[in-house]
Amino acid sequence: MILVTGATGFLGSEVALQLVQQGKNIRCTKRSSSIIPEILKPLGDGIEWVEADLMDIFALENALNGGITQVYNCAAWVSLKQADKKEMINTNVTGTANLVNLCLLQNIRLVHVSSVAAIGLAKPGDLITEIHHLDRDTETDGYAISKLESEMEVWRGIAEELDAVIVNPSIILGANAGTAGSGQLFETVRKGLKFYTLGSSGFVDVQDVAKCMIALMNTTITGERYIINAENRTYKQITAEIANGFGITPPATLAKPWMMTLAWRAARIIGVLTGKAPSLDKVSAQAASMTRDYDNSKIKKATGIKFKPLSNTIKEVCERLTVSA
């Protein structure tokens, strides 16, 4: 029996879907307020749903009972709100620690989802690899800190003989994201984004992330971390391709760093006045002008995966959003 945490989320639901399609017996956790994703509703009895929050160790222990031998941990709290920073870090780290401790006790294999946000920068001109590590002393992004410290809990478990692998996906794209998460980028472009930035990053299709996770679970590999990244693109390239997918004019004006500084400060003020999460925060604004290109050779060697062309994913997302508009 396999357990998937965070199965109501974008990545977790894709992992659950692929496992069921492979004929696996799976159990998925959800919160009482969570809604089952549309892609999982047709599966019906193919998934056993249990209510469990990673912060509730008793509910989590109950979810792991009954012959669970593998766990895909896709659960995490993501927030740009400065007010959520401390609680988000505590929730993500404590929840991971609870899961690690239970997996240790019950001899369960774990694939833990981290993020490239928990990986540091390479020297200029070099690709970022799994050996790079975020500097906790200088990092200010709450989400990045929460993913780094959650990873540390998994490494602590590995030191205590936990059978586990960590994956660090780059920016995950896919039609089922809608306008949330990475889907916000598509929605922003569709609404007439005029500016592009100098930065770059890695991107990957959600289906490929799930495939890599399942492939790693079914190996004997343990105590390793893997960047999962299909292609590196500049933000100018990615926004232009999205605009072309919608049949609109691509962003043509360079947003210089000082302009991004004004933008995130304005977004913060608007967020304070409206009580909503800012559309842009300081970390995101700074990252938009940074070059962050990732090496995917380690995951390709371990799994033999051939990544889906990013252009195909962008086309699929644009088509879905156009139909749902």
Automatic annotation (TrEMBL):
GO cellular component: cytoplasm
Molecular function, one GO term: aldehyde dehydrogenase (NAD+) activity
Domain NAD-dependent epimerase/dehydratase as annotated: residue spans: 2-226
Record SUPFAM superfamilies: NAD(P)-binding Rossmann-fold domains
PANTHER family linked: NAD(P)-BINDING DOMAIN-CONTAINING PROTEIN-RELATED (PTHR48079:SF6), PROTEIN YEEZ (PTHR48079)
Protein name per UniProt: Nucleoside-diphosphate sugar epimerase
